Amino acid sequence: MSRYSRPPNTSLYIRNVPDNARTEDLRNMFVKYGPVSDVYLPLDYYTRRCRGFAYVQYEDPRDAEDALHYLDRTRFYGRELEIEFARGDRKSPGQMRGKERRRSPHRRSPYRRGRSHSRSPRRYRSRSRSPYR
Fold this sequence. Notes:
About 20% of the residues lie in helices and about 20% in strands. The protein is of the alpha+beta class. The protein contains three helices and six strands, in the order βαββαβββα. A hairpin with a 2-residue loop joins strand 4 (about 75) and strand 5 (about 80). The N and C termini lie far apart (about 90 Å). The strands form two sheets. A four-stranded antiparallel sheet has the order 2-3-1-6, covered by helices on one side. Strands 4-5 form a two-stranded antiparallel sheet.
């Protein structure tokens, strides 16, 4: 095996996970096919609910293949799960935040002046002509 080739894939990507799912539920479902080393269920930052997908990491690639074969298109909390081998490695929260920042179409220069962000209400002068001026 060359040092640049990847080991056989032991991580599964699961789509269509219901938002009330818990990691324990997924672990119990997948552990039937072999020892599970990790279950990752990403949560939405604001709602703290499942984002609709999950990752399950097995210790042995054959166990991952068995789980994929037997669990793909099965029902879980009323939803049909779609399972495939995961592509790429799991990203850290710092990598995810960095990725979101790069998508921003506008870059602000530290020397660029913008609007004042004071909290006091703006007062505008009336431009109407008044006979009592």
